[in-house]
Specification:
Helix content: over 70%
Number of domains: 1
Number of strands: 0
InterPro entries: Metal_Tscrpt_repr, Metal_Tscrpt_repr_sf
Pfam families: Trns_repr_metal (PF02583)
Subcellular location: Cytoplasm
Radius of gyration: 17 Å
Largest sheet: none
Structural class: mainly alpha
CATH architecture: Up-down Bundle
Mean pLDDT: 94
CATH superfamily: Metal-sensitive repressor, helix protomer
Main location: cytoplasm
Organism: Kribbella turkmenica
CATH class: Mainly Alpha
């Protein structure tokens, strides 16, 4: 069971909303909307993805990493390394 399982339906709802934002961006380009308006919507979609990412990371830390840390050993080290790498990717994006 993954850390996000309890919130799966909520996560899927958020992702569908983000998908709708991206489809809206495609429509805006197809309809030759003003560049700044498109960029504003890109910013909103980006922020929504970042927010989703942080929530998923929080759930991963609270569930997967904590569980592995309680067991100890190489699995714990691997989960901490994975989380650290994920945080680094999020910071760079």
């Amino acid at each position: 069971m993954h850390g996000y399982t309890a919130e799966k339906s909520s996560h899927l709802k958020r992702l569908r909303r983000i998908e709708g934002q991206v489809r809206g961006l495609q429509r805006m380009v197809e309809e030759d909307k003003y560049c700044i308006d498109i960029l504003t919507q890109v910013s909103a979609a980006t922020k929504a993805l970042q927010s989703f990412s942080l929530e998923l990371l929080d759930e991963h830390l609270a569930h997967c990493v904590v569980e592995a840390a309680q067991k100890g050993g190489p699995e714990a080290e691997e989960k901490v390394r994975e989380a650290s790498d994920a945080i680094a990717r999020l910071v760079r994006s």
